[in-house]
Amino acid sequence: MSFSVLVCDDSNMARKQVLRSLPEQLSANAQLAKNGQEAVELLRSQQFDILFLDLTMPVLDGLGVLQALKDENITPAIFVISADIQPEMQNKVLELGAKAFMRKPVQLDVLNTNLKSHGFL
Amino acid sequence: MSELNLNEDQQDCLQEIINVAMGQASDQLARFLDTFVYLKVPSIEQVSTLSLIETLSSNENSAAVVSQGFFGYEGIRGEALLVYKPKDSDRLADLLGYEPDELSVEEQIIDLSSILTTTFLNVFAKQIDNQMSYSAPRLLAGSQSAVSDHLAQQSFNWDLALKVKITYQVTDYSFNCDMILFIPESAINNIKSVIDRILEEF
Amino acid sequence: MYSNDICIDITNKLNTGVLIIDNQYNIVFWNRYLEIHSNRKTDDVVGNNIFQVFPELPQKWLKRKVEGVFQLKSQSFCSWEQRHHLFELQHTRPISTNSHFMAQNCTFLPLERKDGSDNVCILIEDVTDVCHYQTMLNKTLEELAQSNRIDGLTQIFNRKHWEECLEKEFSRARRYQHGLALIMFDLDHFKLLNDTYGHLGGDLVLIETAKIISSLLRLGDLFGRYGGEEFAIILPNTDIVGALDVAERIRVAISKNVINFQKSEIKVTASVGVAVISEEDTRYEDLISNTDLALYDAKASGRNIVCVAKHLIEA
């Protein structure tokens, strides 16, 4: 089954890393956003099932995105993939509605486990 | 002067490696300091040695500069210069977990700088399948001549300076520091090939 | 690959101390260098707590340092410039130094053992030579810097350094709204004095005058030789009343002083100018200007007198 995916990260390489690790049916039509602002705008205009979100981004950062989505009641399944791995940060993103936190560089098995446990595989 | 001459992909790759290194190093630092470190995206830019010396000497309050050599495999080595302005040096000891009179201001700055440098470079090295060794950190006097003299004495060709601007904000105490990595010409190509190797995986 | 035996052999021949501790701070291994320099037997050391074996170690500081190594899995250092030594070991250098103990550079290395436990290896390097020569070098450099600041003849600040001091004091006074006074005095008829007694006599007068005035000043006052026979004093945190008081005492002291030169008794007087920092002054040179004008007035008024900058009188 296919789900609509949005990958948000300011790093081209990081976006590619995520896409590379996703199964075909999810990566094929995935869309990309370069920063939080772009992501929020896309999420307002289209329906997305899954959002992969980086935290440290210019313009609007990951926490900003999470807050905006919460305020506007936009609810894709949010998976945070970040270089900032402090426990406080992890807790914060979960409190703001993220489904899971994964550290960079994203590992294939970790990603798959998370997707599976939330019904996407 | 040699240029790193990275294309967009290579630049992006390097930025990402540095981001991840910064993220993990900050986490380690935060655990050690028992606090939360607010992280900003570290900016990377190539700087010419001349502009660098100018910047270092133009600061009003003489910045503290700590220098530490690092060496890894495959010729990846250089010198890390940590430049920062301790706004409130009394707090540093507290931050590092010491009583204020337990160690001198110099020691505090050197210790903190060494922690920042080695944790960052260790993680950085791990990502490029490398391992770093370090020389003892040294505090350079804040004057322009001291820094430029020091740099002139380096035996390798320090053509390339990569400035990684780190901003650390620790809950109730904020300090900024710039980490400048001096990489000799011979190491530049090594780094490029490592980056290309990583990019090839995509 | 070299066998363990060779590694241990080399470790015991090293000219560096190797000390390994576990996370309970018990000594797991040490090398021959340490056995010799600490004058203890391995049997009495290995297995024991490091603070028991070396009670001189600053326990709290060292624990914090070593914790860092365990946690961050990263090297740490301590140089002789920060702490002269950690371990009290006799040095064997053929030079006499201030300390009986060797100056040390210590490196702390994280070690992960095969059984998963964490150890820290402390490398202890004797840098007594470096310490000795660096200390001597620093002392010489300091003396050199000092001589760059001091006027050779009178041993008070030379003009260059004195002006630098004034610049600093001026901006400090501006920033913190403090008072600042300047006194400039010039020995009267000095050329005549030189012609009469020769330069040696003139020099002696300058030297003696500097000595006497120095003794009248406070700790924070900055006394310098401004010109051949001209002197200047910076008085931080001083108002016009205080400055005038000092200026008058200077004038009196100089006029009363008798300088014995060869078979003569030389007497000399000084003209003194005084000014304090005022709102209109934008740079330290303005303050010098005002004081200089006051000094000129003193000369014009008959010498051996104290004059105040005019605009201050009007105020």
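qc> Chain B has a mean pLDDT of 75.
qc> done
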